[in-house]
Amino acid sequence: xxxxxxxxxxxxxxxxISGWRSFTKSFAKKSDAIVWINGLENKLYSA
Length: 47
Fold this sequence. Notes:
This protein has one helix at about 30-45, and strands at about 1-5, 10-15, 25. It is α+β, with helices and mostly antiparallel strands. It has one domain (about 1-45). It is elongated. The chain starts with a strand and ends with a helix.
C-alpha cells in the first residue's frame, strides 16, 4: 500500500507491502510520486 506525504517543499512516497522491505523516495511533484507508487506496486505484486 502506498502513501504520499508533503515534507517541506518535496513529496515523500512510501510503499509498504507485507513480505517486502519498505520503499521510500522523494519527488518535487505529487503526480510523479503517485506514478512511481503505482509502477512499483505493480512490479512487486507481479513478482
